[in-house]
Amino acid sequence: MRSLVLIPIIALAGCVESASRYPSLLPRPAEAQSLEEPVRPVPVATPDAALDKQVSGLTAQLDAISAAFNKGAQDAEARIAVARGLPEGSGPWLDAQTSLAELDTLRAPLLTLLSDLETLAIERGAAGLPPYPALDAAVERAGALSRQQEGRSRSLEAALAGG
To answer: Which of 35, 93, 125, 132 makes the best surface tag, with the fewest CB within 10 Å?
Structure first.
């Protein structure tokens, strides 16, 4: 019977704490830490003569491709002007269609060159190297030129279609 009396006393003793052991309401060290992304210095690319030479060569190809496309677009505009208003399947209309197909052929090297430039930039990133300004500028220029040529091709197609 004595053990029956001791069980409630022991149970009650576990519920009682001393008055000096209340938990602190002050922020804990983990709560005071900032969760913001740390500021990291921006890496600067060191000059690379071999990459500069490669980018320069690809940029020169870009200029040649652009000139060839512009010449082809002018030819297509002239043929479309002659074919405007004529029925589909007529000789001038077929000549205009042929020149539009040639424009697509003239755009293909630009798309390949853009892919090559993007591959160089991706390989630099995969190697953990910082972005190279000359390479990034060449990629941006090639992308802009590709969008411009695509827009010009579409507008010429629309002009031939009577739009």
So the answer is: 35
